[in-house]
Fold this protein.
Amino acid sequence: MSVTVRVPAKVNVQLAVGAARPDGFHDLANVFLAVGLYDEVTVTEADELRVTCSGPDAAQVPLDRTNLAARAALALAERYGRDARVHLHIAKDIPVAGGMAGGSADGAGALLACDALWGTGASRDELLGICAELGSDVPFSLVGGAALGTGRGERLRPLEVGGAFHWVFAVADGGLSTPAVYAEFDRLTAQADVPEPAASEDLLTALAKGDVHALAAALSNDLQPAALSLRPSLAATLAAGRAAGALAALVSGSGPTTAFLAPDAAAATEIARTLQTSGTCRTTRAAASPAPGATLL
Ligand code: C5P
């Protein structure tokens, strides 16, 4: 028997970052929006825990127990007294180490798939608790849609979205390490008075109304200066997307994927085509939001 779960990528339409906490994490006001790019995680009973991955960027995905899908299976098995002897296969379509929560998606997908395979009877809150232990972005991968994440980003409040938004994502060569980007944020803000992170009311209203122009005006990412400092070439990608007609451009999460908000689906296709030939990124993807969270297929 096998179970397959489909899980979306995310873009952060606001990422407000506070000062480093004693535990090294940062308090956030993190407005997540799930976008229609998906990984699929299939779990099958096996003789031992094994992870495989397919897709154009599969070679960049670790297949050992650092993979969040493996960690999710082990965490659920331990909690409910099961044996994590399963084969987890990841059909990967989300950019790897790109700031789009691809690893978190695989963790949430594996958790939901193993839960269905084993029939643990775990409640939604119990699953969300395991997600939060696996990583700050994993709970959102389970719930999808749009949500405000506070704390490390793991405490979620669902948000209303009044319409579809159309995005283009420019995938860079190579990934960026999330801890390295946060460390650069700390370095860049060492002399500054970092305010408490707070969600932007203008942004939440724009989302709720489905108003693309208001959303474009309100997009922000406090990690963007740090990502640009580590990867200065991203400035040219952002400029190329703006010149191609994007209403707004920003680094997605900790990067290096960059996100471009388009006025409509046709414009997104055109911006993707122009960016693709600009020589400022490896490849581009167009996708709409919001998208549902982890879903059993
Ligand atoms: O929670 P997760 O494992 O995804 O976090 C990866 C890294 O990102 C952490 O080790 C930390 O360096 C950084 N981080 C942070 N503050 C957050 C979330 C992540 O500093 N709220």
Remarks:
- Residues 2-159 form a domain with the Ribosomal Protein S5; domain 2 fold (CATH 3.30.230.10).
- The pocket of cytidine-5'-monophosphate is lined by residues 25-26, 28, 135-137, 152-153, 178-179, 182 (CB under 6 Å).
